[in-house]
Amino acid sequence: MKLLNLFVDESGSDNPKKGPSKCYIVCGCLVSDYKRNDLKIRADQIKFKYWGRTDIIFHSREIGRKEGDFSILKEKKIYQDFQNDLFNFLSLAGVQLLVF
Questions:
Q1: Which InterPro entries does the protein's record reference (predicted)?
Q2: What would the pLDDT profile of 43-87 be if each residue is shown by its tens digit?
Q3: Going by fewer Cβ within 10 Å, which terminus of the chain is more open, N or C?
Q4: For the chain, where are the alpha helices, taking DSSP H only?
């Protein structure tokens, strides 16, 4: 039997006090159990290449705004290299995405 892991995240505000978001997205990523460890190793290799450690979390908001740990991306060459590495990682991941 093939075991799948489902990772879920959302984008947009889920706080009713702030009012509705223009866009609220729920995304799920299905990863087979045998591929999960391989993906973690490859993600950790990218993290170590740029930060020298693996406790970095790839948050699109921080990446896009080049904030926090991702402030290193303000340097054009590092940003281009990181984008290439991240794109290659995602292209070769072989996962299924579910977007609602």
A1: DUF3800 (IPR024524)
A2: 999 999 999 999 999 998 899 999 999 999 999 999 999 999 999
A3: N
A4: 33-51, 60-65, 76-91
Q: Is the pTM of this model over 0.85?
A: no
6 CB-near residues (< 8 Å, 6+ apart): 28, 29, 30
The span from the first CA to the last CA of the chain, in angstroms, equals: 27
List the chain domain ranges: 39-100
- What letter does residue 53 receive in the DSSP assignment? S
By percentage, how much of the chain surpasses pLDDT 90?
66
Q: What is the DSSP letter of 15?
A: -
